[in-house]
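Figure-free illustration: sequence to structure, shown twice.
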Amino acid sequence: MTKQIYTCLWFDGKAKEAADYYCSIFENSKVVSENAMVVMFELNNTKFMALNGGPMYKFSPATSQVIECNTQEEIDHYWELLGKDGTYNQCGWLDDKYGVSWQIVPTILAQLMSDPEKSQRVIQAFMKMKKFDIDTLINA
């Protein structure tokens, strides 16, 4: 395979608005090309297509974009900006104002979950959280 795999996000007439919104949140991001039907954009060098597809389909948490964050500041940044005018859910999940589901997770979570002595306490801690708190997970 010689071509990159990328995500197509289906919007009801708001593809350009959504692409601009996402590019304003992520560093190293830009709209690459656009026409009335499709907007190609990159978030941190990851390619996306926003399609003005109409009202037939809606987003669901069955498909989500995952952002791994190294610091609490990164978690706070993405949580606040992507969740604004959306819905905050449990365990680091949120739906943005367009209905796209995101998981804002600490990079260290996989390491904490792989520790057999600690994993159950970590799970119990994050099941009580909406936004992940790194210090609470580490100290669980």
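We now fold a second protein in the same way, so the two outputs can be compared directly.
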Amino acid sequence: MERVDTLMKHPLFRECRELIDRAEVNRIYCKHNLEHSLDVARIAYILNLEEQGALDKELIYAMALVHDLGRSEEYQNGKNHHIAGAEIAKQLLEASGFSAEEVHMICQAVAAHKSWSDEGLVKKVEEQEKVVDYCKKLLYRADKLSRNCYDCSASKTCYWDEKARNHQVLI
């Protein structure tokens, strides 16, 4: 996974990670650290294997590693982290050797990972768009499943809707 290694060594990736870690040092709710991103990557990869998805492991890991980088912009200037994350992801992915098609798929998934729904999925006819929708769905699900809401000490004051929380140990 040479491109993922390149991505993780990129100065912008490191800068975003550091800003997020500093901003969340006293956060009692779920953090958006590297551990979370790797959890999302592993869960997404497992889901992709179980569902016999066609996504490449490197694409899945890249998508998960960049999905919350927009938090750095959100904490600094209030910009929506999904939109900022897609912009940051584009820069990092292009600099790391991902193709235009892969960059498009990942950026679309990052921009939609908070509120993905399968509405309209059946209506898509182009193969590319089906893959983009699958990326969105996979990232959304893995992100939510990575949270251990069933064992969270801050759950009583968490802003997440009860229906959105992960209350299961197994996927």
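Summary for the second example: Helices lie at 2-9, 11-23, 34-50, 57-66, 71-77, 81-95, 100-112, 127-145.
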